Amino acid sequence: MTAEEFKMFWISNYPETVPISHYFKHDYSDRWFRIHSLPESKRYADNDGEWSILLHRQNQIITDLLGENSNFLLVTGEYTMEGYTELHPLAEVGSLAQMPFISLTKMDLNKLSPGEYDPGAFYHPMFSVQIWVPKKFDNILREIAYDNLRTFFISIEKELMIAPYDGGIDFILKNSETRDFYKRKYSSWISSRQDGF
Fold this sequence. Notes:
It contains 6 helices and 9 strands. By secondary structure, it is of the alpha+beta class. The protein has one domain (20-186). The longest helix has 19 residues, at 48-66. The chain is globular.
């Protein structure tokens, strides 16, 4: 996939949002749900046992949704402010070191959301074509769980997005019926809060 093909795919499939994962739950709330990575909605793993639970849950549900040996796009990016990297430069993230990335158009965050970002704040998204194999991406899932990396996965075939964060995973599925099915299936892992957060 080229950068232009990604752009056309995004416009056709996710026109209400931008490729920054924290917007997804608001822009596609009718297709969104969230699981928590640890029991009782604990946010961070403190020991090997909790890391085992976190990685097991995340691998299980991602494999269930994507399917083993399926193609997906890993999308990430860098935030910059007036010429210096503001948030975790990707060159310092070891789990991404061997991945080839295709750059996308830099986004002016102040124009996107003036109340949230100052002038001179930009986001430079990029993506890499990958094949999902359970456990293969554990280092990336760990980096995300430590809040050292922001990334999300897209399955073009399954029409879904998977956005791990430090605490759980957000999902945007192809429709509300599919979302409801997986919410029921993983009901013991979702938040007890009424808003699903």
